[in-house]
Specification:
- The structure is a single chain.
- The protein has one domain: Gcn5-related N-acetyltransferase (GNAT) (Aminopeptidase, 3-Layer(aba) Sandwich).
- Helix content is 29%, strand content 27%.
- The protein has helices at residues 2-12, 23-26, 30-36, 94-108, 124-130; strands at residues 45-51, 54-62, 80-85, 113-118, 134-139, 142-148.
- The strands form 2 sheets. It has a 3-stranded antiparallel β-sheet, sandwiched between helices. Strands 4-6-5 form a 3-stranded antiparallel β-sheet, covered by helices on one side.
- The longest helix has 15 residues, at 94-108.
- It is globular, with a radius of gyration of 14 Å.
- It starts with a helix and ends with a strand.
């Protein structure tokens, strides 16, 4: 669970210029707690990248409901993707490999598509677009992207 928390923290604080609280402080944030709560339920899938037996990145998806969801929610049949790579390992193709494997897993599971939420200034936005994710909405300062799989 600690690694999943660390990856979620990295996903939230992708911007090196943004104030970065301590992980212990951020654990109290309602969105953080919601996103990590009950990990391992039906519809959860995660992939970890490691180097020298040390985890350096992860990509995951979760199904949400209309009553309980995150910013990239489209519908209850479309899982929302989360992804992070540790700062010292970014821009080395790790995120691309993780996302490719996650999309393959979603296709193998017969899912209709994947969604995600991304800040328009996040460099990962171009990665998502290169896989065919397209903007379908906005939530606060983030864009909601969708990738059809069928």
């Amino acid at each position: 669970m600690a690694f999943l928390e660390a990856m979620l923290f990295e996903a939230f604080f992708w911007d090196a210029s943004a104030r970065r609280p301590e992980l212990s402080e951020f654990r109290q944030h309602p969105d953080f707690a919601k996103l990590i709560s009950g990990w391992g339920r039906r519809g959860d899938r995660g992939i970890v990248a490691d180097q020298d037996a040390q985890p350096i990145g992860a990509a995951w998806f979760r199904l949400w409901t209309l009553e309980c969801h995150s910013c990239g929610f489209i519908d209850a049949t479309t899982p929302e993707v989360g992804m992070a790579v540790m700062r010292g390992h970014r821009r080395q193709g790790i995120g691309r490999a993780l996302l490719q494997e996650l999309i393959g897993a979603a296709r193998a599971d017969g899912l209709p598509g994947l969604s995600l939420s991304v800040d328009p200034f996040n460099p990962a936005r171009s990665l998502y677009e290169s896989f065919g994710f397209r903007k379908v909405g906005e939530s606060g300062t983030s864009w909601t992207f969708w990738l059809p799989l069928k």
